[in-house]
């Protein structure tokens, strides 16, 4: 069923509001039109391109929010964060992140994105990872954008904070991890 | 009990043969003498300094042995490797590996060393991590040397190879991980 231009533009606006880091390529596929059409639609609707949208979100200046580490030590770009609640970051997989042979993203980069997000979400000046269980659900390739979502699940009986991180490429989950985080109230534990 | 010089030199030679990546500082502490004494002992015994010992081991040219990835994609330096059996690598923790605030090594670097060693030890041109459980046992600081030891434990019922990695600073375990590795015989699994 072909949408009218007006219908498509309305849907497009809604889609970008809901999933602001969607690319023009993904939008074109979603709406069954050319990338050029999406670009024209965005111009008519005065919606900036993805790179500008990300920049303006990042300008929210998360450094004033994040406590556990300087913002430039987070792997990936923080897009949303509420301390001790949830956080989102994105990481564009470039050549430096993949095995040279098969262009598959190396596990430790997906781990680093998730782990540093788990550190950043903690409302404490000292946050360290004690333990982690992770799964790589499918291969991620060069050029893909990984969106990591961290959710704080609460504290366990040892006073460690449990953070769950799920990472997606478009709507497909590619990584999941459970992180047990120390915070400074049990800092002594780490020096045993 | 004070050893004679001859006794000490004999012990020193044995110690270096058993644990070839021990530093002069560690040797001095172990034998209760000054670093200068250790250096003189080494000169008399014609034992090269640590950096040279590592270089000569690395010259064993592990690239001809490792199958799953180019040797320069291994994080850390491979010191010993027997495919599908065991492997050892060392990683010197520098400024680029630590949190700027507290000089504690970031978890993803210890993970990267262990994970890439788990990949390297697999006797297959395609090896990917499916799942991992890890624990950070104690903080690692800038300037410390991490020795990671990977042991292949065999295959599970899904045909994945289990690799256990334990990482040490001197004789203290700082990291432990269990990695479930895909190999190309179940490569289709990854494309589901």
UniProtKB/TrEMBL annotation, chains A, B:
Family membership: Belongs to the FapR family.
TM regions (residue ranges): none
Described purpose of this protein according to its UniProt entry: Transcriptional factor involved in regulation of membrane lipid biosynthesis by repressing genes involved in fatty acid and phospholipid metabolism.
Any one GO molecular-function label of the UniProt entry: DNA-binding transcription factor activity
Pfam family, one: HTH_DeoR
Gene3D superfamilies membership: Hotdog Thioesterase (3.10.129.10), Winged helix-like DNA-binding domain superfamily/Winged helix DNA-binding domain (1.10.10.10)
HAMAP family xref list: Transcrip_fact_FapR
Source organism: Melghiribacillus thermohalophilus
Keyword RNA-binding among record annotations: no
The entry's keywords: DNA-binding, Fatty acid biosynthesis, Fatty acid metabolism, Lipid biosynthesis, Lipid metabolism, Repressor, Transcription, Transcription regulation
Domain HTH deoR-type as annotated: residue spans: 8-50
Statement: the UniProt record of this protein carries the keyword Lipid metabolism: yes
Protein name from the UniProt record: Transcription factor FapR
GO biological process, one term: fatty acid biosynthetic process
NCBIfam families tied to this protein: PRK04424.1
């Amino acid at each position: 069923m072909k949408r009218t231009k007006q219908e498509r533009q309305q849907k497009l606006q809604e889609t970008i509001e809901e999933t602001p880091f969607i690319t023009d390529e993904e939008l074109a596929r979603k709406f069954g039109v050319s990338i050029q059409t999406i670009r024209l639609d965005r111009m008519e609707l005065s919606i900036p391109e993805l790179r500008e949208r990300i920049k303006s979100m990042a300008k929210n200046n998360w450094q004033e929010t994040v406590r556990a580490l300087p913002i430039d030590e987070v792997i990936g770009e923080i897009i949303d964060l509420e301390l001790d609640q949830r956080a989102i970051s994105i990481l564009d997989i470039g050549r430096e992140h993949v095995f040279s042979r098969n262009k598959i993203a190396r596990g430790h980069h997906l781990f680093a994105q998730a782990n540093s997000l788990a550190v950043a979400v903690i409302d404490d000046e000292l946050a360290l990872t004690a333990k982690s269980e992770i799964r790589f659900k499918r291969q991620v390739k060069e050029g893909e954008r990984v969106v990591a979502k961290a959710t704080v699940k609460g504290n366990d009986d040892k006073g460690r904070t449990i953070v769950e991180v799920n990472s997606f490429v478009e709507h497909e989950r590619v990584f999941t991890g459970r992180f047990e985080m120390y915070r400074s109230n049990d800092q002594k534990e780490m020096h045993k």
